[in-house]
Amino acid sequence: MRQLVASFALFVSVAMASPAEDAVRQGLAVLDERVGITEVVALESGLYQVTLNNGDQIYSVEGGKYLLVGDLYSVDGPNLVNVTEQARNAQRLSALQALDSRDVVTFAPAGEVKKVIYVFTDIDCGYCRKLHAEIKDYTDLGIEIRYLAFPRAGIGSDSYNKYVSAYCAADPHAALTDAKAGRAVPTATCDNPIAQQYELGRMMGVSGTPSMVMDNGQMIPGYVPAAELAVQLGL
Q1: Which positions are annotated as active-site residues?
Q2: Tens digits of per-residue pLDDT, 4-26?
Q3: Three-class SS of residue 181?
Q4: How many CB atoms lie within 10 A of CB 72?
Q5: Of the residues 56, 84, 112, the one at which a domain ends
Q6: Quick check: 40 and 49 in contact, CB under 8 A?
Q7: What b-and-e string marks burial along 133-172, b requiring 16 or more CB atoms within 10 Å of the CB?
Q8: Does the model's pTM come out above 0.70?
Q9: Directed axis angle between helix 158-167 and helix 172-180, to 10°?
């Protein structure tokens, strides 16, 4: 898990860098030394997308003389497409697909799994508890919920410790259900991924809970009822 967090930004193209892309990297040598650059990709119109070690994307002109910071949009007829968010989606999806299933507490449908959703969740947040109280509504629709820890108060907080105890319980599913219902869970410790999942969430841009990540890497902040989520997923 630690390796996954450390390498989150390393979602890179397998293609060899072009001379122009190498020139951008060389032009941004100071930035590379201070922050770290993992990838440079040529876009249209002489722009280059530069991915930093923390997963952020910025943009540069040829030679790396000028930088643009912020989301980049392309105009596709009547539509505006967020190119930066598409890159974030690809990073999220790559990182989540690399997770060890043993590190994730999963609530799966009894029948066919039609969609898989990752949910960054907190033990004490009201809407996280609401979502979990309705977990059967999601699984009945064929939606598998894979929980990742995001204790909003941070590592070492009361919510963090509750999540550790639930994860380390003999039956994590039952313990997590009890914790989210406000019932006491016996204190337990073990080798666990809670801190790493929290850091992964921060790198992915999670700022509140619940935060859902769809099967295309798109992040949806906040609680979404099962029926509404099913429509968004095309079920």
Answers
A1: 122, 125, 128, 152
A2: 544 454 444 444 567 777 888 88
A3: coil
A4: 18
A5: 84
A6: yes
A7: eebeebbebbbbbbbbbbbbeeeebebbbbbbbbbbbeeb
A8: yes
A9: 150
